[in-house]
Amino acid sequence: MSAIDRGSAASDEAFMREAIELAERGLGLVEPNPMVGCVIVSPRGEVVGRGWHGRFGGPHAEVEALQQAGEQARGSTLYVTLEPCSHFGKTPPCADAVIAAGVARVVAAMTDPFPKVQGGGFAKLRSAGIAVESGVCEAEARALCAPYLKLVTRGMPWVIAKWAMTLDGKIATRSGYSQWISCSQSRELVHGIRGRVDGIMVGRRTVELDDPLLTARPPGKRTPARIVLDSQARLQNSTQLVRTARQSPVLVVTGPEADDKEIRRLSMAGCEVLPFLAATHFERLLELLSELGRRQMTNILVEGGAKLLGSLLDARLVDEVHVFIAPKLFGGERAPGPVAGAGVEQVASALELRNLKIDQIGTDLYVSGRLHK
What we know:
The chain has helices at 9-23, 61-69, 94-100, 120-127, 138-144, 146-154, 184-194, 204-210, 240-243, 260-268, 281-294, 306-314, and strands at residues 37-41, 47-52, 77-80, 105-108, 131-134, 158-166, 199-203, 225-229, 250-254, 272-275, 299-302, 320-326, 352-361, 364-372. It has two domains: 12-149, Cytidine Deaminase, domain 2 (3-Layer(aba) Sandwich), CATH 3.40.140; 155-371, 3-Layer(aba) Sandwich (Dihydrofolate Reductase, subunit A), CATH 3.40.430. It contains twelve helices and 14 strands. Its cofactor is Zn(2+).
């Protein structure tokens, strides 16, 4: 590429935005690690190395970029979307590799809050005489790393709510039929989301009505666990989920009212039963998300039904929303809507979407965004 005014605020932002675009290539491949991108710029202002974290356990972005740059890394500026690690994990510390390569300046978007890093990478670089700057395009980097940041700081996965509904806000007819509300292109997009998350969550009633398989078709980058909230452990062995439990993980989340006999039945069928004994549904949801976080699940897709989505939204536990609106009308007082729960009392209390995107997918309107909390 042509030379750019190296070191100016404008060039720092331009190179960092390129690093952020590179980082996005790791989506669904690197979790529970963060997506990270790196660009190395020579003293002449030319890009001599690019890299991104491409798979969990694989080389980090800085190492990939340094290998591409080779000797041209000496005296360069290294742009990276997250503070270089300073500890031994599945790979050696990136800060050591940066120092050994002779990089003169490191520009990072943000500090890594992971306890074993948390400023340690910057400190190591500075002690080696490398100039370090942080905070360039930090808002964009934080948005990119939001699921990782939530997992590290709160111990819970990023919760993505998804539903398809008609133009009059129905997710099924009055008799419970819902296949298919959205068009084939929308369903293909949903399978793409399924293929990059760690778990797909539904309530037992949704399983009874739709008998879903809850897999990504074709298979995606990850194999998500199928998670069913079933307080009484009444999920039937005849469902597709239970029949395929030995092929792809099924977690059944039960409450204190679940019968031990039913729990044993599901366990013998190949399901993993997670019994939570807290008295309230809200407390059990918190316990569940904490357990999923303990298992290093980074992204969870919630596909319904209305009661589960309502409980999560009431508790302010949803982070991101994907809604597919079909140009169809069902009508009917008994036809269900997508979200139940208590809801809000005042318009001013409504949950609002930020980072809003509105697209047309086939015949559907696709609305997505992140909830402002």
